[in-house]
Specification:
heterodimer; A: 226 residues; mainly alpha; Methane Monooxygenase Hydroxylase, Chain G, domain 1; 77% helix; elongated; B: 422 residues; 13 helices; 79% helix
Chain lengths: 226, 422
Amino acid sequence: MTKKGNISGLFGKSPISPLQQHMKQVHSCIKEFGVFANAANSEDWEKAKLAKLSIGKKEQKADVLKKKLRMNLPSTFMMPFSRRDLLDVLLIQDSIANITKDLAGLMMSRKMVFPKEFADDFLELAKLCIKTSAAALVAINELDELLETAFSSRERKIVDKMIKQVNDLEHDTDVAQEKIRNKLFLVESSLPPVDVMFYYRAIEWLGETADAAQKVGSRFEVMLTK
Amino acid sequence: MDIIANYGNVLLILAIVFGTFMAWGIGANDVANAMGTSVGSGAVTIKQAIIIAVIFEFAGAILAGGEVTATIRKGILDAELFTNDPHLLVYGMMASLLAAGSWLLIASSLGWPVSTTHSIVGAIVGFGAVGVGIDAVAWSKVFQIIISWIASPVLAGIISFILFRSLQNLIIDTQNPFDNAKKYVPYYMFLVGFVVSLVTIFKGLKHVGLSFSTSSSYLLALGSGLLVAIIGTLMIRNIHLNPDENKDFSFASMERVFGVLMIITAAAMAFAHGSNDVANAIGPLAAIYSVIESGGLIGSKSALPLWILLVGGLGIVVGLITYGHKVIATIGTGITQLTPSRGFAATLAAAATVVIASGTGIPVSTTQVLVGAVLGVGLARGMAALDTRVINKIFLSWVVTLPAGALMSILFFFALKGAFGA
């Protein structure tokens, strides 16, 4: 007899868990880049290809999650944060996976192997970027606790610390990038110019994943201060 | 006069049938909404909800349902105008019951959100204004009721906002939410018991022939508040902190404390609902009975007989047992994001608002009051996602239900007039 006429029509589907799921998916995507970078570094292209495929699949899954969340978020929803901010966080999260996919694609098609002068530094930078994304995931995962406390000041402080952690890690990636670029600059004249161009690009893109993770954090912060 | 003398018993039996049907409909459909937040928060199982609803809907109807029944019975229409044609009042009230009952049946089978309260008020105003004359309607009372339909959800929202903020400050946003929950929850329980019993004692019990002096009323209310607090304290005594279930703070354990509180607020809600909504079914019945019983006298001072309240209470209970439990299950499983602390704030605010409305004799829509209360928690950033389309639906239901109820009751009114004679 009753369908939407009752009180349950009032309760929309919470976007919190889907947002966390999405970030989790995005993070598993960039984590896979660690595998890819190691394989590429040891010129194991078979393994690298598998990792690249896996990155593509994970990026696609994140895309599906993103679309699903958007579809289930009518503008009539009353939420403890603005819908705009939530969608922004989602888009930035998604960009981490997109950049990762493009980067793996570029390195794969060019069979890119970094000169030994800074090959290890690149792997190190990749690790740092994954860490930054992991830190952003930790912060996003706190959203359900934030809701439980109705965004109380205590819980906010905890999240502030988490976001600071993301910022610190992102800063580390900036330093690491600079270090690699300096090393690359010293040897660039002895390398094929086109390769050099793409080395710079790969370093830049990898750094962008950490930038995006940081943006996730800061946008998240905006989302919490309603 | 002859009509009443000739057909009095037939009309009364028909009226009892219609009234019971209406009460059954309320039990089958409406109660589920009142219990929705309790079941949805997971604190009360469906079986518990049904037992609570059976007991407290009935108690609310009997103990506190008198004032709203009086409004429906003789507050909306100016009874003096019927002095020469008392049978018209009988037809009209029967038509109203039929109209509201069938409209509810049609609307809920189509999934439209309608309120029994709005249907019956629309129906009574309809037959009064068209069947008898514009002057037959006590418009000031009707406007008062209509304003209360806007005011009551808003009031519930404000109360729940304040309640939830107080929970946040005293319990949730503290170093140790679990301990503070155990410390402060008994006070909230006291509040539940006090408010509900105070309104009942002041306004409801006189309709069942009990009356108390002001001071003893307060003492009695204090006593029941304390009793509820003591029962509640005993119930939460055995809840212990379970570190495994918690993340940063002890929220999961804290919610279990609120879960117990929820059982008590669910009872208050059922009581409130019984006290307000049973009148929709038995108010018209009471009006018909008093005309027929007095042999056609209008405005006789006869008290509301207890058996009429019993008919209403039993009708609700039967509706609940035969059909309502399914609706409770559907609604309960449909609401998943409500935690006991939120459910508590919203349900208590709604119950308090409805009980106060019952005490003032104003028929309100319990469902819409509850919607207002949940939105209040949402405004305090307590809910993940509330679909505000529900507000449009509420407005729509006002716009549609009032004329629909009115139109149908006018039709039934003239049909009855044709059947039994003018």
